[in-house]
Design goal:
The protein contains 16 helices and no strands. The protein is an all-alpha fold and about 450 residues long. It has 2 domains: about 180 residues, Growth Hormone, Chain: A (Up-down Bundle); about 180 residues, MFS general substrate transporter like domains (Growth Hormone, Chain: A, Up-down Bundle).
Length: about 450
């Protein structure tokens, strides 16, 4: 009876009867009728909300530390360049290690990866509190970035495992909103806590890291780790090179996001605009409003059909910044850029996951994270140099050009590396049903191991 339940992938009694008394075609016909009737697989499960709470806690902790650490470095005698390198070291360490830590999560299990990284980062919080040299802080930031990448890769792969395939973009989008809310409130909380001292800030972030570990401990493993199947770690399949190459698309547009993150407030100040944070406030509001509307559309009409216009909006939004930095231009840019940026990542991730085996999702998200974080770090540094020598319009015009290149790059590389691996229609007229295996064209096999269904 258990094997029969697994084969039916949680179908109702009617579907199980069809599976037991007919061919695979009858199952497909039943599933098609179910979709036409408007029935949808459940997305908002208890585990989904637990993972949202986990990610909210992750970013609530991190974004109390990131904006305050540069001030601690200045207090310890470091210069502005050293203060800026804290985020740079952490970001680049995360980017370069992500393909490896993501693959490691596939091997040892995503739950175990979340638990270990949460505990280690809690240890870093204690080390930050004890540091009396800004050089030590920078070394710790680099090491911190390695475990940060493991945390992000494993959590993204875990949430993908528990989201129904037919609602994958929608699920990733809603899950991502938890991080946006955390980022919106964390810096303000961080600076208030920092007002009571650096040790208090580190204690607060450390406590949040321990809370993350407790949440991770409560989670079941969504599928058996690869090592349980006897697969070796250091093989030619260690990294998802196809995903890494296609994800360079994200590098091209996150380059501009790195500049927006670092310099939109400075641009506003140089233009006499108050409040200086108007760009990010508008950006966050636009993402919160548009993502629940645009991202589920990708699951219905096809992820590429939503992703490609998002790239156009990102490039256009950065182009608006190149035109002017007054309040109307800043707000217009944030609206256009936010509509594209808030939609692009969830639908891109959902599309890529259609071409990746479930046991390789950690490695795939590692490649995505590597490209995205490298773009942010490189954009922040490069656009800072351009702003210093050529001004804000030239810097954001450069970012707009690179973002515009992301569209033809994706179309060319995706056709060579991903589309030919898809079963059937390369144009993705609609997302695959849960009955289809996107890497072999076979019936999917859903494991119930370690899950309480």
């Amino acid at each position: 009876m258990r094997a029969k339940t697994t084969t039916s992938i949680g179908f109702s009694d009617g579907a199980s009867a069809a599976a037991g008394g007919g061919t695979g075609r009858s199952i497909v016909e039943w599933y098609t009728r179910r979709l036409m009737a408007g029935e949808r697989e459940p997305l908002f499960t208890s585990r989904f909300f637990v993972m949202c709470a986990f990610s909210f806690t992750v970013f609530l902790s991190a974004f109390q530390l990131l904006p305050t650490a540069p001030f601690r470095i200045l207090d310890l005698g470091g210069g502005k360049f050293a203060a800026g390198m804290f985020l740079g070291f952490l970001t680049y360490a995360s980017a370069f290690s992500a393909p490896l830590t993501g693959a490691l999560a596939d091997r040892i299990g995503k739950r175990r990866m979340l638990l270990v990284c949460s505990l280690v980062i809690a240890g870093f919080a204690a080390a930050y509190a004890a540091s009396r040299s800004y050089r030590v802080l920078l070394v710790l930031a680099f090491a911190h970035g390695i475990f940060w990448s493991g945390l992000l890769s494993a959590s993204a792969a875990y949430i993908t495992d528990i989201i129904p395939e037919s609602r994958r973009a929608e699920g990733i989008g809603y899950w991502g909103l938890s991080t946006i809310v955390a980022i919106a409130v964390a810096p303000t909380i961080g600076f208030r806590v920092y007002g009571h001292g650096w040790t208090w800030l580190c204690a607060t972030t450390g406590a949040l890291n321990l809370a993350m570990a407790a949440i991770a401990f409560s989670l079941p493993e969504p599928r058996a780790p690869a090592w349980m199947g006897g697969e070796r770690f250091f093989t030619r399949r260690l990294l998802e090179w196809r995903v890494l190459a296609v994800s360079f698309t994200l590098f091209l547009y996150s380059f501009g996001y790195g500049g927006v993150t670092s310099f939109s407030a400075l641009y506003a100040a140089a233009s006499g605009v108050e409040p200086r944070g108007i760009y990010f406030t508008t950006l966050a509001l636009v993402v919160l409003v548009t993502r629940p509307l645009s991202v589920p559309l990708g699951d219905r009409i096809g992820h590429k059909k939503v992703f490609l216009p998002s790239l156009v909006l990102i490039a256009a939004g950065l182009g608006v910044l190149a035109v002017g930095g007054t309040r109307p231009w800043l707000v217009a840019s944030a609206v256009v850029f936010g509509a594209g940026f808030g939609t692009a990542y969830p639908v891109f991730a959902a599309y890529v996951m259609r071409h990746v085996e479930p046991s390789r999702r950690g490695a795939a998200f590692g490649g995505i994270l590597a490209a995205f974080d490298t773009g942010i770090g490189t954009g922040s540094i490069s656009l800072g140099w351009i702003i210093e020598h050529r001004g804000f319009p030239a810097a954001f015009a450069t970012a707009a050009v690179l973002a515009a290149l992301s569209l033809p790059y994706f179309l060319i590389v995706e056709r060579r590396l991903l589309a030919r691996h898809s079963p059937g229609d390369h144009n993705q007229a609609a997302p695959l049903t849960p009955l289809e295996s996107p890497w072999r064209g076979e019936t999917s096999r859903v494991s119930t191991r370690s899950e309480k269904t």
